[in-house]
Specification:
Strand order of the largest sheet: 8-7-16-17-18-15-19
Helix content: 25-40%
CATH class of the largest domain: Alpha Beta
CATH architecture of the largest domain: 3-Layer(bba) Sandwich
Radius of gyration: 23 Å
CATH superfamily of the largest domain: FAD/NAD(P)-binding domain
CATH topology of the largest domain: FAD/NAD(P)-binding domain
Strand content: 15-25%
Oligomer: single chain
Number of strands: 20
Shape: globular
Structural class: alpha/beta
Largest sheet: 7 strands, mixed
Length: about 450
């Protein structure tokens, strides 16, 4: 008899897992609260400008991404980032410095002082930490690489990835591969060299060397293609109201277009944010709420700007720039969207995506929006040497944006692992488990598929 699995949430985690499960012969149903698929992936085309309001790209870190593109007939839609996007800038003293990507470039760069460069040479001789799982990324980096590298490389990098702060993030949970380099090899430089061979054996690429990709119609193309494949298995504008255990499995009740409906199933996979999942699973374990509520999702405002290219005096030869906290600006950084991928704007225009807030400045929500945007725009235009007014602008406010894998996150990870063991047939996934990026979510979907497949097949024995 075919097993039925209900997936809650039609973001990239839920859709990818559902797709893989359906290929394994399971009867999969996806219940999504919103009227469209994609979750935090949103692509908008207005006035001739394409604006990704959530994730703007993915890194090809797993062969599964290319497999999805092939099987879903997305090859004609697929775009790889322009070579110029390999160049990334960091702001220091109100000047953009290219992040050095080779030893000669590192020696020549003015981004770091001579003292900081010499300090980096000591990294292979630094011993392992005794702090274990409860070490912040800031403590880890400062100990191994020094304060200046923390301030002008890691701090802005973390703002770009997590919209977070290295003082708050757990190195073990937020950057497990970085943590593993010290644990396994004793250091970062030696570990990086040795781990390259291991990734080649697994057919994986590091995030530093993986190709960056998107699609002609934006990142939304991938979730839309999966949803098209699944067809009427995806139920939109439907909100799950309860999950109940039965002798045979579970009953998932939901409200769809104002009508109460229910699905009997053998397993339930939740891929919604932790703060949404807690309402559904607290009945199975009262501690679920404690752990889910402790996961912080800071607010982020995405600000999209388009200008006449002739008015931008800064050479557009890179991915964009990130801003260290020490520079005291009103935003975290900017992507040079039309440089990274084509089809984002007509040739005469340049488009940019700016990020405001995050853990660095969650208080921005209290400021009058127009005053904030005016100040951000002024700072941005000064950095980019822009002489004209924007020809188009748009914003997207995320009240709860990216889950922060903060210090002590390992306790949440252990709880969710134990929760699944104590409640066979219930599975918890999403970007608060296993990584926040699109690539992480796709890779994790494959692991979750295997976990569900194994448990349900074993139940048939």
């Amino acid at each position: 008899m075919t097993k039925t699995i209900v997936v809650i949430g039609a973001g990239i985690s839920g859709l990818t897992t559902a797709y893989l499960l359906s290929k394994n012969g399971f009867d999969v149903r996806i219940i999504e609260r919103k009227s469209e698929v994609g979750g935090s992936i949103e692509s908008v085309n207005e006035n001739g400008f394409l604006f990704d309001r959530g994730p703007n790209s993915a890194l090809e870190t797993t062969p599964l991404i290319n497999q999805l593109v092939e099987e879903l007939n997305l090859k004609d839609e697929l775009l790889y980032a322009n070579k110029e996007a390999n160049k990334r800038y960091i702001l220091r003293s109100n000047k953009l410095h290219a992040l050095p990507m080779s030893p000669p470039a590192f020696i020549k760069t003015e981004l770091f002082s001579a003292k900081a460069k010499l300090r980096l040479l000591a990294e292979p001789f630094i011993g392992r930490s005794n702090d274990g799982y409860y070490q912040s990324l800031a403590e880890f980096v400062k100990r191994r690489l020094g304060q200046e590298f923390l301030d002008y490389a890691i701090n802005p990098f973390v703002a770009g990835v997590y919209a977070g702060r290295p003082e708050e993030l757990s190195v073990k949970s937020a950057f497990p591969k970085l943590y593993a380099l010290e644990e396994k090899y004793g250091g970062l430089i030696v570990g990086t060299v040795r781990s390259i061979r291991e990734r080649k054996k697994r057919a994986e690429k590091s995030k530093q060397s993986a190709k960056m990709l998107s699609f002609k119609s934006g990142m939304i193309a991938l979730p839309k293609a999966i949803a098209k494949f699944l067809g009427d298995k995806v139920i939109l504008s439907a909100e799950v109201t309860s999950i109940d255990k039965t002798n045979e499995g579970y009953i998932v009740s939901y409200k769809h277009n104002g009508i109460d409906e229910a699905i009997a199933c053998d397993a339930v996979l939740s891929t919604v944010p932790a703060y949404v999942a807690l309402e559904l699973f607290i009945k199975f374990n009262k501690n679920f709420k404690t752990h889910a509520e402790a996961i912080y999702y800071p607010p982020v405002l995405v600000y999209f700007l388009a200008y006449n290219k002739k008015d931008v005096k800064q050479p557009l030869d890179g991915f964009g720039f990130l801003i260290p906290e020490k520079e005291k600006k009103s935003f975290l950084g900017a992507l040079w969207s039309s440089v990274i991928f084509p089809y984002r704007a007509k040739d005469d225009y340049a488009t940019f995506t700016l990020f405001i807030g995050g853990s660095r400045n969650p208080e921005f929500v209290k400021e009058e929006r127009e005053i904030l945007l005016s100040r951000v725009r002024k700072e941005f235009e000064e950095i980019m040497q822009i002489t004209g007014q924007p020809v188009y602008s748009s914003t997207r406010f995320w009240e709860k944006a990216i889950p922060q894998y903060n210090i002590g996150y390992i306790e949440h990870e252990r709880f969710f692992d134990e929760f699944e063991k104590q409640n066979p047939g219930l599975f918890i996934s999403g970007n608060f488990r296993g990584g926040i990026s699109v690539g992480d979510c796709i890779k994790n979907a494959d692991l979750v598929r295997d976990k569900i497949n194994l448990q349900l097949r074993m139940n048939n024995l």
